[in-house]
Write a structure and sequence with these properties.
Mean pLDDT: 89
Structural class: alpha/beta
Number of strands: 14
Shape: globular
Radius of gyration: 24 Å
Distance between the termini: 58 Å
Largest sheet: 10 strands, mixed
Low-confidence stretches: none
Strand content: 25-35%
Number of helices: 9
Order of helices and strands: EEEEEHEHEEEHHEEHEEHEHHH
Helix content: 10-25%
């Protein structure tokens, strides 16, 4: 603000169902440079969701207005303390930090690795949350098909993220979202993974699904592949699904773990998910032997050239080094 202005400051908090003045101050004298005019506290009585803060400063000589969109979340709590088999120590620390119970529930397991013990637990009727995203599971011999993910739009034939749909009403409510992805999903999606369910043996209960693009890779067309390849477009991507496996409940989440204790949205997602799982049931069922057979025989399919550039996300545009690494000589393509 310019110096030596004598004015009033009004601050309002707005949402879909709220328009509330949360601060009013008069006879505020401005000084040159950075100046604090007010301290504002937003109380926990508010519901999780998107809010807009509007600030208006009025003096005899000027009227200045600004606004900011913010997201409000409750402090995370996890009702049950699950048993942990996690390589990610930071994520294990997050669960321990916010769990209300001191003793771990042996029938509820959170893991980020695929071992024979996981399938044995399912056969014994346990609830398993597999945090699949961000890890290389190929050494286990059991994998899900899919691709790395970024929270950025598709650029013609670059990319595989045209948004997503949250089918769980409980997750929508706790995360302050309606049905479709919005900015809070960035801390979960960026650097995570998504599973392609096109060839999955059954249709699980998809709690969060992704939308693939309907555009073919230009390099295929330049190489003479003119038809659309159904295994490359409009794939049935999924970020979170639940199914009955053996005698247990098997939930798979593919979001990144790195922001679980850094981002309020990510904290809310994981704490809400862990509260939901012990009470979930699902009609979709598969035996552990059938699931193991499927996961052992998954063929890893690399993303097309332009999608691969989008997923590595290290440069604004393709350069000579990228084309050389991909083994493509542009001078020979007509």
């Amino acid at each position: 603000l310019p110096a030596n202005q004598n004015g009033s400051l009004r601050i309002r908090l707005l949402s879909k169902d709220r328009n509330q003045e949360i601060y009013q101050g008069a006879h505020l004298i401005t000084v040159a440079g950075l100046q604090k005019l007010a301290d504002i506290e937003i109380f926990s009585a508010y519901q999780p969701g998107e809010y807009t803060i509007e600030a208006e400063f009025i003096s005899q000589e000027m009227k200045i207005f600004n606004n900011w969109n913010i997201w409000y979340y409750d402090r995370p709590t996890i009702s049950l303390r699950p048993s942990l088999r996690l390589n990610d120590k930071a994520f294990a620390g997050f669960i321990q930090k916010y769990s209300r119970e001191q003793e771990a529930d042996p029938n509820f397991v959170v893991t980020d690795t695929i071992t024979e013990e996981l399938f044995e637990d399912l056969d014994n009727g346990k609830t398993i949350l597999l945090c699949y995203g961000g890890n290389d599971h190929s050494a286990s011999g059991y994998i899900f098909p899919g691709t790395l993910d970024r929270f950025k739009p598709c650029i013609w034939d670059r990319g595989s993220n045209l948004g997503g749909i949250i089918h769980s009403g409980q997750l929508c409510k706790k995360m302050g979202l309606e049905r479709y992805f919005d900015f809070p999903m960035q801390s979960l999606i960026e650097g995570g993974y998504k599973i392609n369910l096109d060839d999955f043996p059954i249709m699980p209960d998809e709690l969060i699904s992704g939308v693939d693009k309907p555009v073919r890779d230009r390099m295929n067309a330049l190489k003479g592949i003119k038809e659309y390849q159904k295994e490359r477009i409009l794939r049935n991507f999924c970020y979170l699904f639940v199914l009955k496996c053996g005698k247990g409940i098997f939930a798979v989440s593919t979001f990144s773990l790195k922001n679980a204790d850094r981002s309020p949205a990510a904290s809310t997602y994981y704490s809400t998910l862990m509260d939901m799982l012990p009470s979930l049931t699902d009609k979709s069922a598969i035996s552990t032997s059938a699931l193991k057979k499927y996961m052992r025989n998954v063929k890893v399919m690399k993303e097309d050239v332009m999608n691969h550039f989008w997923e590595i996300d290290n440069k604004p545009v393709e350069d000579v080094l990228f084309w050389e690494q991909m083994g493509i000589d542009l001078t020979k393509i007509r």
